[in-house]
Amino acid sequence: MVVDNERNILYTRTHESKIQVFDLGKAGDGSFKKVAEERNIGDQRDGRAGSGRLAGRRGASRTHKSPIVSISALSSAESKSIHLVAVTSDGRRMYLSTSSSVGSRGLNSSGGNSVRPSTLKLVMSRPAPSVGTGGVISFGNLAISGRSQPETLVLKVESASYSSGLLLLSDASPTTMSRLLLLTKDLTTPSGTFPISSAATGGSYRALREVVSVMGADGRTLAIADVLPAPEYTHSAESAVWEVGDMSYSMEGEVTRAKRLWVRGELALQHAVPRRRSVIFTNMGLMEIVFNRPVDILQKILESKMSHTLLEDFFQKYGAGEAAAMCLLLAARLTPVERKIVPSVVAERAADAFEDPRLVGVPQLQGSGPSTSPIASPAAGFNMGQVVQEATPIYSGAHEGLCLCSARLLWPIWELPVMILKGESKFEDKDGGIVVCRLSTETMQILEDKLRSLEQFLRSRRNQRRGFYGRIFGVGDLPGFYSNGSLDSVSKNLFDAPHGVDTQPLPSKRQRVPYSSTELSVMEVRSIELIRRLLRRSGEALLLLQMLCQHHIARLAQTFDVNLRRKLVNLTFHQLVCSEDGEQIATRLIAALMEYYIGLNGQGSVDDISMKLRDGCPSFYQETDYTFYQAVEFLKKARETADVDQRERLAREALTLLGKVPESADLLSICQRFEEIRFYEAVVELPLRKAKAVDPNEDAINDHIDENRREMALLARQQCYDIVGNALRHLKEESSQTTVRTGFGTPQSGILDKTMRDKYIRQIVQLSVRWPDRAFHEFLYQTMIDIGLEAELLELAGPDLVPFLQSAGSRQTLKTGAGGRKHAMLSAPSAFNQSKQPVTEEEAKYLELLARYYVHHRQHVVASHVLLRLAERRQLEGGMLSLEQRFQYLSNAVLQAKNATLASPGAKVADGGLLELLEGKLAVLRFQIKIKEELEALIARSETVHGLNSEDTAMADPFPSRRLLVEEASIHTAKEKLEDLGRDMKSISQLYNDFAVPFEMWEICLDILHFSNYSRDPENIVMKDTWARLIDQALVSGGIAEACTVLRRVGPRFFPGEGGSLPLDTICLHLEKAAQDRVTAGKEAVGDEDIPRALISACKDAAELVQSVYDRLLATGAAVPLPLLRLRMLRSVLTVLREWHSLVFGSTLGSTALTFKGAFSFGQMTTVNQNVKDKIATSANRYMTEVRRLSLPSSLVEPVYQGFRELEEIVMGPPSF
């Protein structure tokens, strides 16, 4: 009975050679189920499945059935479709399958139990092995022929055992004694072909070739069994048969695991697995057989001191590459030899053979020579029909052997992940589970030892300048000898490209001989050197993994975030050794490991672990890393001490150490530690040192280089600058109860008041300004502006702040200097040409800071120019600058101009009237704001009235659409003008012609005309007409009362009316006529005192001036032709005279102190009063005569006459006290 534990199938063989198949269930726990039975498998007449020609080799004329003496199950590693092999008594081998679809590519493709047995059929048969009478070992193809051997040579197999490519037959055909036939796969290169590396057909020939060994045996063989290799030898090679993601292999039994290893073949595993052994049980006792591997045969050849011919024959049989690989195994002592070591003499001879050009050949160009190896095949010759190929470098067999040996050592782990998750969730989107190393520490130790042994052998040859290194002595310093190429490219050549072929492109396709022999030798040694570096790096990676496992990788990985943890689990050994991601993850793992020693709850000091890392994996942990973690340890001590002086001393020592390795320091974490102990000198110095180290040529500030290159350099510096910026942000955001963030331990809490925060902020800024790094200064200034440290910026910044603010605040930089007042004044006029350039809100922020800077440094003139530009700037789309803000800017500009005038009286002349200009612009802006307010009120009133009128019109007018459209158009126009008015500052002409006049803002028109001293109209028609329009507008809205109110409000602003701004004659006549017309029409009752008192108020109580205006009007008959109008004006004159008398004598009598104040004596005051009385009395007398002349009824005239008469009597009467 034979059980296939992999497929869960039971096979039985009866005495009559009947084979039965039983299915044990998919999981192997089901009941027995017989699925097939075959009786005629050993019958030579059965010609099924390829048994015709092969079965006819021996005993073709015989018709009897040969009994089956042995059955053995085949593992899925040997075949996916053949499941059982049966050996007959005549030595034939029958290969059987339990599947009905033999040959299907999908059959049991996974090697699992998805397809259950359904039949038993013969797939193919193989004849009995050829055995000569001498029982010698024969190399070469088996002779397949149809002739029968003599009866004495017919095998009589009484017992057989097949296991993973090894077949043992117990033959009882000899008459003297039994013999054992040992059949193994022939691993040598077929004669007449090229070596394996350069012949595509070598593999197919090897698959059907076998070696037959014959040895005697005492007694009758009863049973044969394999001796399993010791676990310490197989563990390092077990992963060689693992598939990616298939972790079930570790659960298999030792027998199955050993068989899966043996299937790989001796060439691939002779560096890891010892010689194979079998035990034979006979009726005479036990016998153990040891099967020599090819490397064992080579060792015996080297030990025997035999002639060089045998060694050449060995190289010819196995190929130069395979033989050289076996020489390396012996020279570097990589073979497991059952607790024995390779003798030094053998190792030295193997090293010499590895480097002997007579055995391994020399590097050549493909097509330029007959063969890489000088040991050419006898059948090889010149073929005139052969196509001439392009010359391609082909390295020697030694290089190929090194590639084979290195690839076989690394292949078991190269493309597999180094970490796995245990206890992970079944769902792919989950990141649960514990991170553990895929390989055991013992396995990694064995593999590391082998890699280091091979690397040390190559390094010793290099240091001694022996072998290949000695041949290129003197030319080894060619450019790029030790630097060209990368570990990743070497690994691709090891595992992807054909061995011995350099994948570098040729300089020219048409160049027949691109390299000389010396250059080819140099190229080969350079490749060997890169492979050596790859081996060294791989060994260091394995040691690092061992140390991580010893410190519980799961605990170290807990400090990683989800993304980094996922990268760690997906990291392959190839990536760990060759990629930047692997380097970064290794750095993070080492950091976590060091934190275990020097963290808050550290278990030791840096020296405890650094020595092991520096000695074992210097490429992962360099001297700079040791210096860095030494500094971290100092910081840990500084954090724990309560002594301020001791803390500062330790922090300074850490800073000194980190200053030696600016590029290797982990700035983010280390500066957080310095922040924790409030040592901000290091927070500034370390990032700036690293910025200089990553950009030594200052490409970030070089405008003459490629833009992409400059951006990359600036980005590298930016990452360093961010640390200083973050420190400022942390201090700015901290409250009284602060929490210091750190990546190495728990947060530390402490009290930090505003005074201390301000102190540290000033310290950081002062330290930063001292560094001569223009790019950093710009970053610092921008950061301080962003986080609201403008006051500290203006106080502590360096002289380069002005160019920074100018550049940031304008597309066309305002070239005002910061070196002194004179320079700024000379450059200031350029601001007027740029003041109306478009400026964004962000740019305005920088200009405001620039103005504040100039004010802070008492450069008032330049500050006023910047403020003027801010006020007059044009807004871009979506701007939010209001006229009130512009007014504020201009007011500040005027203030700065006044300060400049006070500080330097000659500044007004030197600056060309800046103060007058600014005050004029401020006045114009006032008009603009007033117009804006009027427009807003107008729109509000119009919308209200429009809403009410639309309802009334809809009820009264059946066709109201035309009127409504006109009103809507007016409102729309007003809104457009309002929007345009707020967009920028307008000139005074624009305000008058485009806004004030079209919207009938006559009061504002008067203000504008008065401000501009309008003089183009000699007769003052424009001013008079504007006053008339203003009065008419008031009359419409509120009658004479409203007109008088407007006159009282507006008139005093223009009095005394120089330049015709207050035409009293026109105003007076216009009001009197309007009053007479409205009284006559009965529209309004107008008092006699309304108009004259309004005129007196407009003239600021200058009653005499008003009386003179009335005199002129009454004297001109054409101006006042109507009697009623003249009578009304006479009543107004009476009111003016009374007001005059009241103003003069009422003040004098009511204020005695005022009367006698000053240089006037009592007599002088009496003289003045008498003159006024005389004028009033004379005027009253004259007006009485004028009243008498009016041809009007006495009822109208007499009251006016009596009024003048009473006034005259009062004036001319004696004074009352």
Describe the structure.
Residues 396-1098 form the Nucleoporin Nup133/Nup155-like C-terminal domain. This is Nuclear pore complex protein. Residues 1-173 form the Nucleoporin Nup133/Nup155-like N-terminal domain. Residues 37-48 have a biased composition (Basic and acidic residues). With 1217 residues, this protein is α+β, with helices and mostly antiparallel strands. Strands 1-2-3-4 form a four-stranded antiparallel β-sheet, with no helix packed on it. A four-stranded antiparallel β-sheet has the order 5-6-7-8. The chain has a four-stranded antiparallel β-sheet with strand order 9-10-11-12, with no helix packed on it. α24 (680-694) runs parallel beside α26 (754-770) and α29 (801-809) packs antiparallel against α32. The radius of gyration is 56 Å and the shape is elongated.
* Strand fraction: 5-15%
Helical content stands at 40-55%
By oligomeric state, this entry counts as single chain
Low-confidence stretches: 47-63, 104-111, 133-152, 192-205, 240-249, 375-382, 425-430, 475-484, 497-511, 735-749, 811-833, 1147-1160
Q: Quickly count the helices.
A: 47
State the major sheet: 4 strands, antiparallel
Mean pLDDT: 78
Lateral strand order in the biggest sheet: 1-2-3-4
Structural class: alpha+beta
Question: Roughly how many Å apart are the termini?
Answer: 157 Å
CA-based shape: elongated
The rounded Rg comes to 56 Å
